[in-house]
Input
Amino acid sequence: MLTGVGAEALITLAGTPPMVGASDTVLIGHRTEGLDAASAAELVRLPSDLRSIDAPAVVRDAVAAGRQAAAWLAGRGTGVWLHLDLDVLDPESLNAVTYPQPGGLDWDQLADVVAPLARSPRLVGVSVADFRPDPDPTGDQATRVLDLLGRTLP
Output
């Protein structure tokens, strides 16, 4: 929505869209293979100048993916906002999300890709989305999320 894709009532909340230019945005860890029809349609709607590193590339080399994302964002805009959507993780690592899908990252890969972005002196904020406590009655998965944030964020 920030890049001007979505329901008009939402994308115009801050005035004329986009709120953030697509070329100032990096989508990291999204699945590109074995998608259902709705997920495939979402990928097609993404702006053509949106920078992206898909899940298979991150799985191959998470450190390089994180460095590439940080390099793309260096000097762009007035700062960097890190939005971490937890369904980027493979369900074997975290299943307490709304849309668990195979083919995602494990905890170490996520830490490796997030680290260069979190260390940026231009980081102005972080948001975390899509953790569902109901499939985590013991709180073990929530603890893993907090551990990840504690070891990657300054």
User: Anything to note?
Assistant: The beta strands are 26-28, 51-53, 80-85, 123-129. Helices lie at 8-11, 37-45, 55-60, 62-73, 107-118, 140-152. The CA atoms of residues 87 and 97 lie 6 Å apart.
